[in-house]
Design brief:
By secondary structure, this protein is mostly helical. Mean pLDDT is 83; it is low at 89-97 and 342-346.
């Protein structure tokens, strides 16, 4: 350090020469030790007032005083001051107590930069004279107040003084306690208020008043003091607001917590306030502590479990004397039991986490204590209606539950935040919730509270159920989603509690469609099937029938027909026992849906039509609409049927009926299928319009399942348009959603779509990895058409990378699957792909047979795939030396849109380039005429010629 121009170095030498520590010098001049440390490190300059007091404390002579003051303020040269080289023998004459009376902090302050800046800004404003730092015990209000006060010392040259009210219980002792903190004695000739006003008047002072919550009745005394002393400012800590006109309340939040998304980023974890505090206090206990990534992750999890409460984190960090962070995390599930030993020199109420909460609880009125205990039953938050239900018996005409709840919010034992619908949501910090549960258990209230909690959410589910299919669905879905943790807690209680299964059955049966809409089918199935297995709810009741139908539907949507059939079988038995024809119709409807996978569809269609007849007899418009939809879905979907027009008509009728009834479920499902059918027929504009409408309805209604399903289908529209960039973005979004929620069907669509993108980009390696993941999906193994599609695409990728033997084997496997279920669409696509592969291997006769069979299937379905077969025929004609015949075929293929549909693997990336190359090869006038003649053929003429034996496109 340059000793000639460093004021900090000079100051340090002078202090040491006087035999003073930094703390002793700070006490003499009335500042914090950290200020002296910063002065000596040249990190800050003293104010004029502080420089004067330093001169007095360091025995700077009168002759040197002006030079010292100028050097201290940075406007004079330090080297003009004599540098002390040996101790000064004159003992320091202690100056009168400085104006600043702040306790020295026990350890370094960590974090809170945003809060310090916000409070500093408030107090820096002359119009703000009373700031109250509020929050529950353990949030670090006192430490924050002291840190802010330290930062404000220069703004209050006449003094910053700390007033501790913790030992006080009598409001009348407030003013005398402030006098004592200022170093004044009460006088007999004047009242305390007047004495204090006389002392403070004309001075710019800040009083830091700690622990005001137990003297709230004395609040008006502070108001009177502020009115009498214009230059006075107050910084107050309290668990509750003071309710004074001059008050600016600043709720002190918990420390910033690490994001779970940063688990793999040690730097990000270590940068968060809560983790920084833990590490600082842990290293004070175990110097040199160094944590690996797993240790940091454990610390982050501990901080989250403790809600970011500084007191709880400090108590937990002290435990590293015994436990590693990983071991501590395993024991932190009950923090009130674990965190029981704090520093011995801390206030008694802050030596354990339980003690600091006890202190807040003891200050509540009896009805506030009772409601607080009951709120411990809620998990993840609650709304006013839920709180009013559990606290109904506490309400009086003078004080309804909402007023009691407002008091708990004001006392920072309950947090309030805006909900999705604009109404407030409430919650307890996890440590407070655990404390409330302990109190309720000790009072013998806990079993009854859990039962009432479950009953409330069962009733909420019953009220929501009728609205899942109408245009009010979003508000009910949002409400259940906000209360999802409570719903889970109610279901868990019902499975664990004898006599509680009935409530669980009612809740599971009421909300199964909620699981569907929110993409949580797997969780919904698990809860529903677990409850259905319990003997306590085995009786044939309406509630059981409803839960059975929901479970069967969810199982069938995952193509678990074995699981679905077991539930439907019991549902049928209940319908028979109860003589309930509505149940009979539901059974037939659910059984009819099985046509989407295997077997001859005729018997299944018969079940659907019988279901429709019963619904018509009963006048059940919802059932009628669903049955018409299912019949249309089957007629238009199943590969072996030649009834696409009849299927289209049924779907359009279902759509009309659903729109009229406001049944958003059937509306979106009809739009999906009609949009998919338009896509298969090549009508991309209609497909996009229908699917966009479905997505909009899903988004508006809060139906995440419909929104994402429509999104996935729009990805295939983008593929069909050849927009690979848009398709990739859509499928990537779908993949993130599917992985997050475990949605197996959408996972398959996303992976298959991305694999097709890779195929069309000529990246078979990336495509193969995606197909491998898709084939591991349990849904795919339960749904042969999708498995066949993926195997066909994998065969196309193998051909693309030149592995023709693997390509042939995969296509053969795909073909066998489609043949086993008579799936015409799959047979058409796979045979077309085989035709191209066999041509490539020199098997021209095999290629011709494959193309001919593929065209026959496509003709049956009326779909677009004929074009790729025509390309195959044209290439065969050229190979056999028939250029004019080839030109006619190329012209027909081009007119039918060859190479324009990247959404199926039977269309190939090289189709369009092949057509262009053929135009160049066949550029003579004669061949151009043949090309034009082929392009002029109608689709029917093309198919007729292609299927004619030995003529037309026949190549024998």
């Amino acid at each position: 350090m340059n000793t000639t121009d460093s004021f900090g170095y000079w100051l340090r030498r002078r202090r040491l020469a006087r035999g003073l520590t930094q703390r002793e010098l700070a006490d003499m001049v009335g500042c914090a030790p950290v200020t002296v440390r910063k002065l000596e490190a040249d990190e800050r300059r003293p104010s004029a007032q502080l420089a004067t007091r330093l001169a007095e404390a360091l025995a700077v002579t009168t002759a040197e005083r002006e030079t010292f003051l100028r050097a201290a303020r940075g406007i004079g040269r330090v080297d003009r001051l004599p540098l002390v080289t040996e101790p000064l023998n004159t003992p320091p004459a202690l100056a009168p107590p400085g104006p600043h009376r702040l306790p020295a902090p026990p350890n370094a302050f960590v974090g809170r930069a945003a809060e310090i800046a916000a409070v500093w800004s408030l107090l820096h404003n002359p119009s703000t004279r009373l700031v109250s730092l509020t929050g529950p015990g353990g949030t670090g209000k006192t430490r924050l107040a002291l840190q802010v006060a330290t930062e404000l010392i220069e703004q209050f040259p006449d003094g910053v003084c700390f007033v501790d009210l913790a030992p006080l219980g009598d409001p009348s002792r407030l003013i005398p306690t402030i006098l004592a903190a200022l170093g004044l004695r009460e006088r007999a000739d004047i009242d305390s208020h007047s004495q204090l006003v006389a002392y403070l008047r004309g001075r710019r002072r800040l009083l830091v008043i700690d622990n005001f919550e137990q003297l709230l009745e004395a609040g008006p005394q502070l108001g009177a003091l502020l009115a009498a002393v214009p230059n006075l400012s107050l910084l107050v800590t309290s668990r509750f607001p003071l309710r004074l006109q001059a008050e600016h309340e600043f709720p002190v939040p918990p420390l910033g917590l690490p994001d779970k998304a940063d688990e793999g980023n040690p730097e990000a974890l270590a940068a968060t306030e809560a983790v920084q505090l833990f590490l600082a206090r842990a290293r004070a206990t175990r110097p040199g502590l160094h944590l690996k990534d797993s240790g940091l992750q454990a610390v982050a999890a501990i901080c989250r479990a403790l809600d970011g409460l500084p007191l709880a984190i400090e108590l937990a960090a002290a435990r590293v004397r015994i436990f590693t962070p990983e071991a501590l995390l395993q024991r932190i599930s009950r923090p009130l039991e674990l965190l029981v030993e704090g520093a011995r020199d801390a206030p008694a109420r802050q030596r354990t986490l339980r003690a600091t909460i006890d202190w807040s609880y003891s200050l509540l009125a009896p009805d506030e204590q009772a409601l607080f205990r009951r709120l411990g039953a809620f998990v993840g938050g609650f709304d006013l209606e839920a709180a009013e239900t559990l606290g109904a018996d506490l309400a009086t005409h003078e004080r309804p539950v909402q007023d009691i709840l407002a008091a708990l919010v004001e006392r920072h034992l309950v947090r309030s935040s805006p909900g999705l619908d604009g109404l407030p949501r409430f919650s307890l910090l996890e440590t407070l919730r655990e404390y409330a549960q302990e109190l309720a258990t000790a009072a013998g209230e806990w079993p009854e509270l859990r039962a009432r909690h479950a009953a409330y959410y069962a009733d909420l589910g019953e009220r929501a159920a009728p609205h899942f299919h109408d245009f009010e669905s979003r508000s009910w879905i949002n409400r259940l989603e906000a209360d999802l943790d409570n719903v889970r807690a109610a279901l868990a209680w019902s499975t664990e509690t004898p006599g509680g299964r009935g409530l669980g059955l009612a809740l599971a049966g009421a909300i199964w469609w909620f699981w569907e809409l929110q993409g949580r089918r797997r969780e919904g199935r698990t809860w529903t099937e677990q409850i259905l297995r319990d003997p306590e709810v085995a009786a044939p009741t309406r509630e059981r029938a409803r839960a059975l139908y929901g479970g069967a539907y969810m199982a069938s949507q995952e193509h678990d027909y074995t699981g679905s059939d077991l539930l439907v079988e019991e549902l049928a038995a209940i319908g028979s026992q109860l003589g309930n024809r509505h149940i009979e119709a539901l059974v037939l409807l659910e059984l009819g849906a099985g046509v989407r996978v295997v077997g001859d569809p005729a018997p299944w269609l018969a079940k659907l039509r019988r279901s429709l007849a019963i619904f018509r007899e009963l006048g059940d418009e919802n059932g009628i609409t669903m049955a018409i939809f299912e019949i249309g879905y089957t007629l238009i979907s199943y590969g072996s049927l030649a009834y696409p027009e009849e299927g289209q008509a049924h779907l359009e009728e279902a759509l009309r009926r659903a729109r009229a009834r406001g049944d958003t479920n059937v509306v979106t499902m009809s739009l999906f299928k009609l949009g998919g059918n338009a896509l298969d027929r090549g009508d991309l504009e209609r497909a996009e319009a229908l699917l966009e409408e479905a997505r909009q309805i899903g988004t508006t209604g809060g139906d995440l399942r419909s929104t994402m399903h429509a999104t996935g289908l729009l990805g295939f529209v983008a593929l069909a348009r050849g927009d690979l960039t848009l398709a990739e973005a859509i499928f990537t979004e779908l993949l993130e959603y599917a992985r997050r929620l475990g949605e197996l069907i959408e996972l398959d669509h996303a992976l298959g779509g991305l694999a097709l993108v890779a195929y069309w980009r000529g990246d078979p390696h990336a495509g193969d990895l995606l197909i491998a993941e898709a084939l591991a999906n349990p849904f795919v193994h339960a749904y042969p058409p999708r498995q066949g599609w993926l195997l066909g695409l994998r065969g196309a990728l193998a051909e693309q990378r030149g592995d023709l033997a693997s390509a042939e084997a995969l296509l053969h496997e795909s073909l066998a699957l489609y043949q086993s279920i008579t799936h015409t669409r799959g047979l058409a696509a796979t045979r077309a792909r085989q035709g191209h592969l066999r041509h490539r291997t020199g098997d021209l006769a095999g290629a011709e047979a494959a193309f001919r069979e593929s065209i026959a299937h496509y003709h049956e379905l009326g779909w677009f795939g004929v074009a790729t077969c025509l390309i195959g025929f044209a290439a065969l004609a050229e190979a056999r030396g028939a250029p004019e015949h080839a030109a006619r075929l190329w012209g027909a293929a081009e007119a039918m849109g060859a190479g324009s549909r990247p959404d199926w693997p039977d269309c190939r990336p090289d189709d369009a380039p092949q057509v262009a190359a053929a135009r160049t090869r066949l550029a003579t006038p004669e061949l151009a005429a043949a090309w034009a003649a082929g392009a002029a053929l109608t689709a029917a003429e093309v198919v007729a010629e292609a299927l004619a034996e030995g003529e037309g496109f026949g190549l024998r």
